[in-house]
Design a protein that fits this description.
alpha+beta; two-stranded antiparallel sheet; two-stranded parallel ribbon; 3 helices; 4 strands
């Protein structure tokens, strides 16, 4: 069986937390085999892409597979625009807060820690 998952899903941006419509498309293959003892065969099968059903079965419930395929199609890192943080969907106030935090961290790095003040004279000594 071949499944093609496609559509649009609304996710939250990992960077600015705004709603972000994301296009999904992926395809998955499942091999379904008919056997006499499907429960035993499914327990022993190591390949997740192989599934066994009884020889007399005429219906197969694929709802869980479709749910799983959709979740596997969603990328782990979801952002408005990966290269720069100014995409049309970006939450501007969240981006401003991030930039403010970034500048505060840089200011903290520039301040010299008084603990190291007396040790500067040993910096250029050779063994």
């Amino acid at each position: 069986m071949k499944f093609e998952i496609g559509g649009t899903i609304e996710v939250n941006c990992d960077r600015c937390n705004s709603n972000l419509p994301m296009d999904l498309w992926d395809e998955f293959n499942i091999i379904v085999k008919m056997v006499e003892e499907p429960e035993l065969m499914n327990q022993q099968e190591e390949d997740p892409d192989v599934y066994y059903i009884g020889a007399g079965e005429s219906h197969l419930d694929i709802a869980n597979w479709i749910y799983e395929f959709i979740n596997l199609s969603i990328p782990m890192h979801k952002t408005c625009n990966f290269e720069k943080m100014d995409g049309p969907m970006c939450n501007k106030s969240a981006l401003e807060a991030l930039k403010k935090l970034e500048t505060e961290e840089k200011k903290k790095e520039k301040k010299e820690n008084p603990i190291w003040k007396g040790l500067e004279k040993f910096k250029d000594l050779d063994n």
